[in-house]
Design brief:
disordered C terminus; 18 strands; Dna Ligase, domain 1; 3 domains; Nucleotidyltransferase, domain 5; 5-stranded mixed sheet; alpha+beta; about 25% strand
């Protein structure tokens, strides 16, 4: 075991000389998931998990912090336990989350190419101009994702660098969110002594965590059903085609059960986890069963029918799938995605989810599982709830800029020492 001073020295050395260890925090409305891992230095493809921890998240809903003190305590708990498991002192992180305040705008812009050949500077310039051309009061742009480039009227170009041209255009998806909501999240993370290296919407991260290159090429929709929101992202021809957030999630099912059975949300959550199944009316030979509420809590009275419970839960899932399908119709992709609908999140584990999804979406449905070379024996991340966390790891490694985070800057260096001492002091 290292002493606190030894931990301080090790952490400062890592900050000065660099490391490929990556920490991601996926902030949800019910759970906060922290993963610490690294990518193979030789292949850059396989990654290994050193530490993982899931803590409760009771102070944020739909991306909005409700209680700053409790939110910071939840964050700190998740990070601290992952650090203990990985034996790493974390001072910077990548974060991901979904928010009802997310908006995705599609923007087209063009620039004149200097020197007749497209360099990286021209690509950066056209993306920056597309970003700046959109007026977004009280909002901050998180990401600008190119859908395709147009080189001298030739459309569908994925990477124009090195091509000869006089004019370069881009069609880009601009991800933005409410500025105050984002600043509160940034402040909470800064207050626990951590720096944010980058932020990824789970609209991007969850899809990256489970989708293959082939699926993105042929056409696929990723549906991430969270506690309070559902993120939906469509890929085709290898690029992001459309993305949006539906303000319905797993917690909506709990609220429906509480109202339908006239019980508390705490009991409704237990009922959902222990007894809820989808579309039992369509199950051949199903025999209904009455459940005594006193089994769940001695103070509860009465019974409920599992078939009635299924009807309550099924109605909410059908509503969610309806909104997904309506949005797919808007972009001409309803029933037109050869690589199906890939679904992630805790709520996809409910029984008969795939069957109801197929019937409602009119698409084959598949549950997405992130896969890694896992160094942990007793903690697997091959689970649909880790799609966002693993996707953020992959994105952070893909867009890593050597020297960007670890270049030695004196002001940054002393700020880092202060943050580290904040975490080490009792």
């Amino acid at each position: 075991m290292y002493t606190k001073i030894e931990q301080l020295i090790l952490t400062i050395n890592k900050k000065m000389w660099g490391t490929n260890i990556i920490t991601t925090i996926d902030i949800g409305s019910s759970k906060i998931r922290t993963i610490i891992g690294y990518f193979d230095s030789e292949t850059e493809d396989n990654f290994h998990i050193l530490g993982v921890w899931i803590s409760v998240s009771n102070a944020i809903r739909k991306g909005n912090i409700l209680d700053m003190t409790e939110f910071k305590a939840n964050l700190d708990k998740s990070l601290e336990e992952a650090e203990k498991m990985a034996w790493e002192q974390v001072s910077w992180v990548y974060i991901s989350f979904n928010s009802s305040s997310f908006e995705v705008l599609k923007k087209r812009w063009q620039v004149t190419v200097a020197g007749w050949e497209i360099w990286e500077e021209e690509v950066d310039r056209v993306l920056e101009m597309a970003k700046n051309s959109v007026e977004l009061p009280n909002r901050e742009v998180l990401k600008v994702i190119p859908e395709n480039f147009i080189v001298d009227l030739e459309e569908g170009i994925k990477n124009p660098i090195g091509m000869s041209a006089r004019r370069l255009e881009v069609v880009a998806n601009i991800f933005s969110m409410n500025l105050n909501v984002l600043n509160n999240i940034k402040k909470a993370i800064a207050d626990i002594g951590i720096e944010i290296y980058d932020i990824y919407p789970n609209l991007l991260s969850s899809a990256e965590g489970v989708l293959t290159k082939r699926q993105k090429e042929l056409g696929v929709v990723c549906i991430d059903i969270g506690a309070s929101t559902t993120g939906v992202t469509v890929y085709e021809n290898g690029v992001l085609h459309h993305s949006w957030v539906i303000p319905i999630g797993w917690d909506s099912v709990t609220n429906d059960i509480a109202l339908g059975l006239r019980t508390s949300t705490g009991i409704a959550e237990k009922i959902k986890l222990d007894y809820a199944e989808l579309d039992l009316e369509s199950v051949d030979g199903y025999i209904d069963e009455e459940i005594d509420l006193s089994v769940l809590n001695i103070w509860e009275e009465g019974t409920f029918s599992r078939l009635y419970l299924s009807q309550i839960v099924t109605a909410r899932y059908e509503e969610l799938f309806y909104f997904v399908r309506q949005e797919l119709k808007k972009v001409g992709k309803d029933g037109m995605l050869p690589e199906w609908a890939v679904c992630v999140g805790w709520s996809v584990k409910i029984k008969w989810f795939i069957d109801l999804g197929k019937k409602t979406l009119k698409l084959p449905v598949f549950i997405g599982l992130p896969v890694s070379k896992d160094d942990l024996v007793d903690a697997s991340i091959s689970d649909p709830v880790f799609a966002g966390s693993i996707g953020t790891m992959i994105l952070s490694n893909t867009y890593w800029v050597n020297g960007g985070m670890f270049s030695l800057n004196i002001g940054w260096f002393f700020d880092s020492i202060v943050n580290i001492f904040k975490k080490l002091l009792p």
